[in-house]
Design brief:
This protein is an alpha+beta fold and 141 residues long. The chain is 33% helix and 29% strand. It has 2 domains: 1-30, no CATH class; 32-140, no CATH class. The chain has 5 helices and 7 strands; from the N terminus they run ββαβααββαββα. The strands form 3 sheets. Strands 3-7-6 form a 3-stranded antiparallel β-sheet. The protein starts with 8 loop residues before the first strand and ends with a helix.
């Protein structure tokens, strides 16, 4: 059986894994949660330094957006905090992220900045080592 290029599929979990079933006209397809594939991994361009936003954006651009949800910056930041690479610190009614020594070893760099309102914060850059560490985590989950 072949399907046209306009065919949309539903994901169906069965005992043998995940099967693709065509969606009926007018039904919204179900997307899987983001997961790192070998195909995505092979296409990633690692930079000397990049922001988490740019790195996650690049990964999202490489996924099949019709079948897979986006990787979120929040999910990566949550993992980084759980692993002790970043920590959340209250400051003036806000929560600011701070780089830890463990985060520096992981491959994250911090630049101290001051907002227009006078709030001090850190802007993070991820080295190639840090980018590869994020990809390793994504492959392991």
């Amino acid at each position: 059986m072949s399907f046209g290029s306009d065919t949309v599929f539903f994901m169906d979990d069965d005992a043998d894994g995940i099967a693709m079933e065509p969606a009926l006209p007018g039904e919204k397809p179900i997307k899987t949660e983001f997961f790192m594939t070998q195909e995505i991994e092979e296409q990633i361009h690692y930079s000397e330094f990049t922001s988490l936003s740019d790195f996650v954006g690049q990964i999202n651009d490489l996924r099949d957006e019709s079948a897979m949800k986006r990787l979120t910056i929040k999910s990566v930041e949550q993992w980084l905090a759980e692993e002790g690479y970043l920590e959340n610190q209250p400051s003036g009614g806000m929560i600011l992220k701070k780089l830890t020594e463990k985060g520096e070893e992981f491959g994250i760099l911090a630049e101290n900045r001051v907002s227009e309102r006078g709030t001090q914060y850190q802007r993070f850059s991820y080295t190639e080592k840090g980018q590869r560490g994020i990809v390793a985590w994504l492959l392991s989950r």
